[in-house]
Amino acid sequence: MTDTASPAELATFAALRPRLFSIAYRMLGTRADAEDVVQDAWLRWHGSDQQAVQSSEAWLVTVTTRLAIDRLRARMAERESYVGWWLPEPIVELDEHTPESSAELASEVSMAFLWVLERLSPEERAAFLMRQVFDHDYADIAGMLGKSESACRQMVHRAQERVQQQKPRFEVPKEQHRELLVRFMEAAKVGDRAAMKAMMDGDVQLVADGGGKVNSFLHILHGAGRVAGVYWSLEHQNPNRVAYRQARVNGAPGLVRYVDGKLESAQSFQVEDGRIVAIFIVRNPDKLTGVPQFI
C-alpha cells in the first residue's frame, strides 16, 4: 500500500483484506500466491475511479476472484509436472489465538476440502466457492465470471456433486478430533502400530507431498495396516528422535512432526465416526516456511 492512498481508501481495503485473502487462498492453495493476488487487487483498487464504484466489497471480490482464476490457470501447467501429489500449503497455527483462527479462515478451508477442490476447473472452483462458501447469489457470480446465470448454476451443481462424493458424512466436534489425535500422537511416538491401526478406518488413505524436494510417496497409500506401518517405520528408523506437536492445521486439529529437532512435516487428519479416514502430510519444505523450523 502506498503513501498516496487516502485514509478512506486504506480503511476500506484493510477491512476487506481478510475476506479477499480467504478467497484467494481457497482458490490457489498457497499463501504466497494468495498474497500476490490480494496485492494486485489493491493496486487495481488504488488506481480505480472509486467514486464510480457502487459497492467496494463487490468490486474487490470480483477483481480478486478474476485474478485468482487467471493465476490458477497459469499454475495448472506447473502442477501437472509437479513431482508426486500436490497438496495445498498448510496454514499452521501453534497458538490457537492467532488472527488466522478467525471464522473467515476456519470455515471450509480444511486440507481435505481443498484436496477435493483441486479436481475442479478454475471457473468451477470459483463458482462453487462463491456460492457455497461465500453465499453470493447467481447474479453476482455471473457478473464475476462473465457467464450466464444458467451456466453458473450448472457449474455449481457439477462441482457440488464432485465435492459431495468425498465430503465427510458429518462434522466431528473439534474436541473429539483433538482427543483422537492426542492418542494417535502418543502411539506414534512409541511406534505402537496396533494402537495406531485401531484408530484408523480400514480403508484409510495417506497422501503425502514432497514436491521432489524430499523423499515422499508418489502414490496414495491405502489401508490401516500400511499407513500405521509408515509411522512405525519412521520411529523404528529414528528411535527417540521423532517428536510431535499439536497444532491447528487449516482450522482443524492437526500435528507437526520434527525429526532430530528439525521440522519434517505438517499433518492434517480427516476424521469420521471416531476413526481417521484420511491423512494429508505436507513435507515439501517450500510449503512449510511459515512453521517453526525447530522444536
TrEMBL record:
The RNA polymerase sigma factor 70 region 4 type domain, residue ranges: 116-159
Entry GO MF terms: DNA binding; sigma factor activity
InterPro entries: ECF_Sigma-70_Domain (IPR052704), NTF2-like_dom_sf (IPR032710), RNA_pol_sigma-70_dom (IPR014284), RNA_pol_sigma-70_ECF (IPR014303), RNA_pol_sigma70_r2 (IPR007627), RNA_pol_sigma70_r4_t2 (IPR013249), RNA_pol_sigma_r2 (IPR013325), RNA_pol_sigma_r3/r4-like (IPR013324)
GO biological process, one term: DNA-templated transcription initiation
Gene3D superfamilies membership: 1.10.1740.10, Winged helix-like DNA-binding domain superfamily/Winged helix DNA-binding domain
Pfam families the UniProt entry points to: Sigma70_r2 (PF04542), Sigma70_r4_2 (PF08281)
Domain of life: Bacteria
Residues annotated as domain RNA polymerase sigma-70 region: 13-75
Subunit structure: Interacts transiently with the RNA polymerase catalytic core formed by RpoA, RpoB, RpoC and RpoZ (2 alpha, 1 beta, 1 beta' and 1 omega subunit) to form the RNA polymerase holoenzyme that can initiate transcription.
Protein's name according to its UniProt entry: RNA polymerase sigma-70 factor
